[in-house]
Design a protein that fits this description.
By secondary structure, the chain is an alpha/beta fold. Helix content is 37%, strand content 20%. The protein binds pyridoxal-5'-phosphate.
Length: 382
Amino acid sequence: MNPKELEDRYELPVYPRRDIVLVRGKGARLYDDQGREYIDCASNVGVSNIGHGHEEVAKAIYDQYVTLGNCYGMFYNPVRARLAERLVALSPPRLKRVFFCNSGSEAVEGGLKFARASTGRGEIIAAMRGFHGKTLGALAATWGEEYQKPFMPMMPGLKHVPYNNFQKLSDAVSDETAAVILELVQGEGGVRVGDKAYFQQVRELCDQKRILLILDEVQTGFGRTGTLFACEQFVEPDILCVAKSLAGGVPMGAVLCSEAVKVPVKSHTSTFGGNPLACAAALASLEIIVRDGLSEKARVLGGYFLNELRAIKNQKIREVRGLGLMIGIELKEKAGPYVELLMERGVIVLLAGATVMRLLPPLVISREEIDIALSALREVLA
Ligand SMILES: Cc1ncc(COP(=O)(O)O)c(C=O)c1O
């Protein structure tokens, strides 16, 4: 049986599949089992910021595995120590400590738990159209019946308010509010960029009421929006959740915390959290992002990509929006068929809701590769 038949037969059918078998990747290109080449404008949903198949990360992973691949958090380890120091140094000044985990959902779980433990309060305010993952705690913060309904009842204490609307958020705050959790650019929710003024008001409110501000940068982190963390362009959080491209494609998440976060020993741990293998990959990947100026590249190339897309005169396009190399093209009709047509023309993009095409190319994509993607986009929309 071929890989499609095997996966369809043996795995739970939870992923809406595309009809290709990807076998290899290099830089911003992907290859299928028929030898066809694709321009990657998805990065495995924001994972491959440094591009596919980076030799430096591969070497770091190999070297670490033959040295010490696993080391539970009860023992000290030099690679974990170096990564903790490096990540805190690269983060906004308010953030002083880190907890390591293995995915975006887990980073959000950690953030929600730390907020409750640190404030002694139970209520969390999240935004409509927000996406924070699908484990039970994170799922309660994620917006949308489609995701929540099969798994009711949800964790209590979550309130959802309209995004980018300070008055509604402020009205929802009570004496029981522990935290507000928000994305700076809503990714799954349709690539919606929040206003800086809104986030500043939220920051002030949180300071006044001693509420912790959790920013979910699982998708916007590590150069994607033009700065290492998107929050550098908005406000500082008390808790910053990251994952996806942190370790160059090796599963890893992290929760960066201010001094307001206090949790008892043993209350929250993880077997694989901070394993030296992922830490070595993260150190190598961070080095590449900083040394090669990938955040700046995302800012410049993202600006180019956005301008070119906005210049397309096409009745089907409602709006083009984004920040850095996180771009949404909202259509006046369903976007699914165009995503398929693009794939046939060798360009892989994502959906973000029914009508939005989402582009998250590796930050190492070249201008020439962006031009190829633009030609295909113009062609399929015409
Ligand atoms: C903003 C945000 N938070 C959390 C998650 C969940 O991450 P994971 O799929 O690694 O659990 C995602 C995944 O797309 C995300 O975009």
